[in-house]
Specification:
There is one protein chain. By secondary structure, the protein is an alpha+beta fold. It folds into 3 domains: about 190 residues, Heat Shock Protein 90, CATH 3.30.565.10; about 120 residues, Ribosomal Protein S5, domain 2 (2-Layer Sandwich); about 150 residues, Ribosomal Protein S8, Chain: A, domain 1 (2-Layer Sandwich), CATH 3.30.1370. The protein contains 17 helices and 22 strands. The strands form 5 sheets. It has an 8-stranded mixed beta sheet with strand order 5-4-3-6-2-1-7-8. A 5-stranded mixed beta sheet has the order 9-10-13-11-12, with helices on both faces. A 4-stranded antiparallel beta sheet has the order 16-17-18-22. Strand 9 and strand 10 form a beta hairpin. The N and C termini lie far apart (about 80 Å). Bound molecules: adenosine-5'-diphosphate and magnesium ion.
């Protein structure tokens, strides 16, 4: 057989390698912004069209490139930033691999204009698919401008793989924020389709964070400062009362480079100690300074993960610094600690007589029963004595519930509970029914064949989810017009997203108009939202949407429906009146899929009577 191995042409090799460095428009944005910073610029603009699919342009006022460097910058492994492998351990620049421009030029149409200080004329280069189309002198400002047009134009599989514009722009904004946040001494601006998204002046770190996330952040930040031989820490954590249900603003920078590190994230959470409940995530904006020789940033191609030599020590220092910062600002002592809600019971001591807990349980309650088919039976007393409770259990063993997800649950005795035993009159049967709210979180109801426990928050989420899906099918949800329209300011990123999703969010029942850069006037809300805080609900909706988009890859309507349902549902912890519980249970059972959330988590747990009997050894 003749020889068959051939070296790939450069353009093809670059295209393949590009896949590693440039996954989406946001990756190109990151590389170009970092190059501009490495070039010493103090003013950088990012211009985006069509979520970066049509244009990504970065203009800087840095030191520019000579004619030769301009041409060389597109070669693979061409870099001015390191000379030998040793330099890798003493990096002071963002870039060092010399791959970004070669990669970008392989998969896009690139126009570079650059001029170094003191020269009258600069250089212009047009390069497409690694092929130089044009190189000439030009007149331009000192500094560099890269325009990346039609990313992936020659790699259709990649281009088709790109997500919708709202998603791609969200990634771009995220990259922009990560870079801009940690360089408060550089002015940054960003434009999307001609609209100004950010205009960040030079200033302090605090000013930069506030510039990115909005004025309200000023009062949310607690400074964290710590200086040790191993690591220097400076930055802020968010006050616990502003913690979010989803991981939102969590930023670690190591030597001015954004990194992700779940171990260190844990250290911050730990520093908050008991100030947060399990499902809350603190915000933080922490800049770490570490001797470059003690970290290895080279383990990941997109460089958001790094290895530390002294990981454990850094963990301990971060945790302590956060703890102290919160303590210093008098946050720790003033907070109410939310009790963990769980069925926890003190163990009974043998010497004490066993007292029957004072629970009233209505043994005839059955949310599944059709009114007309329910047999009339003697009015049960609200049971004070335990015998009658058990005897009714024993009598009614008939299996009525189609037990979709049969599960056995271990229930411990209940120490303390809120008992609501209101009766409502059923005209035909004069039947008393009982629903009990436990821990302001669960609703306990009774079936002929046992009992059921409903998670109030999940149940409401399921109900709303189905309603919103129906809104999308019908094209419109019911809106309640507000007497006084509310003007709401959003963070720039949220405002962009809201703008992109305008039509769909209106279908959910909102009525709003954009007013100014990141403000909206909300004049109508979905009818079921009556009492909720509108701003929080919309923010919650957007936050959930972003999270689902990146983690679950849901379809847009499904994502919006579940996000809105999550954001608008009654919360665990809310005390419900009997009527509210009744309505919730009724609505849940008229859902198509009452038993679980779309993600499969249960809304209802049934306690099969037979199992209960078994557990009590009957
Ligand atoms: P790296 O940043 O890893 O060196 P790049 O491919 O991103 O690799 O850039 C290659 C080289 O091009 C850089 O080392 C730098 O010398 C030059 N360069 C890139 N962007 C700029 C810019 N905005 N201003 C000045 N020089 C630049
Ligand atoms: Mg670079």
């Amino acid at each position: 057989m003749s020889d068959i191995i051939k070296l790939l042409p450069d353009a093809v090799a670059n295209q393949i390698a590009a896949g590693e460095v440039i996954q989406r428009p946001a990756s190109a944005v990151k590389e170009l912004l970092e190059n501009a910073i490495d070039a010493g610029a103090d003013n950088i603009s990012l211009i985006i069209k069509d979520a970066g699919k049509a244009l990504i342009q970065v203009v800087d006022n840095g030191f520019g490139m000579s004619e030769t460097d301009a041409r060389l910058s597109f070669e693979r492994h061409a870099t001015s930033k390191i000379k030998s492998a040793d330099d890798l351990f003493n990096l002071s620049t963002k870039g060092f691999r010399g791959e970004a421009l070669a990669s970008i030029a392989a998969i896009a149409q690139v126009e570079l204009k650059t001029k170094i200080a003191g020269n009258d004329l600069g250089t212009q280069i047009i390069i497409e698919g690694s092929e130089v189309k044009e190189q000439e002198v030009c007149s331009c400002a000192k500094g560099t401008s890269f325009s990346i047009k039609n990313l992936f134009y020659n790699v259709p599989a990649r281009r088709n793989f790109l997500k919708s514009n709202p998603v791609e722009i969200k990634h771009i904004i995220e990259e922009f924020q990560r870079v801009a946040m940690v360089h408060a001494d550089i002015a940054f601006s960003m434009y999307n389709n001609g609209n100004e998204v950010f205009n960040l002046k030079k200033g302090s770190y605090r000013q930069r964070i506030v510039g990115i996330f909005g004025d309200k952040y000023n009062q949310k930040l607690v400074p964290v400062e710590e200086d040790t031989d191993i690591v220097g820490i400076t930055g802020f954590v968010g006050k616990p009362e502003f913690a979010k249900k989803t991981r939102g603003e969590q930023y670690f920078f190591v030597n001015e480079r954004f990194i992700k590190n779940s171990y260190l994230n844990h250290a911050v959470n730990n520093g908050f100690d008991q100030l947060l409940s399990k499902d809350q995530h603190p915000s933080y904006f922490l800049k770490l300074t570490i001797d470059p020789a003690k970290i290895d940033i080279n383990i990941h191609p997109t460089k958001t993960e790094i290895k530390f030599e002294d990981e454990r020590a850094i963990y301990a220092i971060i945790r302590t610094a956060v703890k102290q910062a919160l303590g210093k600002h008098n946050i720790a002592p003033t907070l109410d600690f939310e009790q963990e809600s769980s069925f926890n019971v003190p163990l009974m001591r043998n010497s004490e007589p066993v007292k029957a807990p004072t629970i009233k349980v209505n043994t005839s309650y059955n949310p599944f029963a059709e009114k007309s088919s329910a047999p009339s039976r003697p009015k049960p007393q609200s049971t004070k004595n335990w015998e009658s409770l058990y005897s009714s259990f024993e009598q009614e063993t008939e299996q009525l519930v189609p037990d979709a997800n049969e599960r056995t649950v271990e229930v411990e005795p209940i120490e303390e509970q809120q008992i609501i035993s209101t009766s409502w009159e059923d005209d035909e049967h004069d039947e008393q029914q009982t629903l009990i709210q436990l821990h302001n979180k669960f609703i306990l109801g009774q079936l002929k064949s046992g009992s059921l426990i409903i998670d109030q928050e999940r149940a409401h989420t399921r109900i709303l989810f189905e309603q919103y899906i129906q809104n999308f099918a019908l094209g419109k949800g019911a809106t309640q017009q507000l007497l006084f329209p509310e003007t709401i300011d959003f963070t720039t990123a949220d405002a962009e997203l809201l703008n992109e999703l305008q039509a769909e969010i209106k279908t959910l029942g909102f009525d709003f108009e954009k007013m100014g850069k990141s403000s909206f006037v909300v004049s109508g809300v979905p009818t079921e939202l009556k009492e909720q805080n509108i701003k929080k609900t919309i923010e919650g909706l957007l936050e959930q949407f972003k999270l689902n988009e990146s983690e679950l890859k849901l379809k847009k309507h499904e994502n919006l429906a579940i996000s809105m349902a999550r954001s608008a549902s009654v919360r665990s912890g809310k005390k419900l009146s009997y009527e509210e519980m009744k309505a919730l249970v009724d609505q849940l059972f008229s859902c198509e899929m009452p038993y679980s959330l779309p993600n499969g988590k249960p809304t209802i747990i049934t306690l099969n009577l037979e199992d209960l009997n078994q557990q009590f050894d009957y």
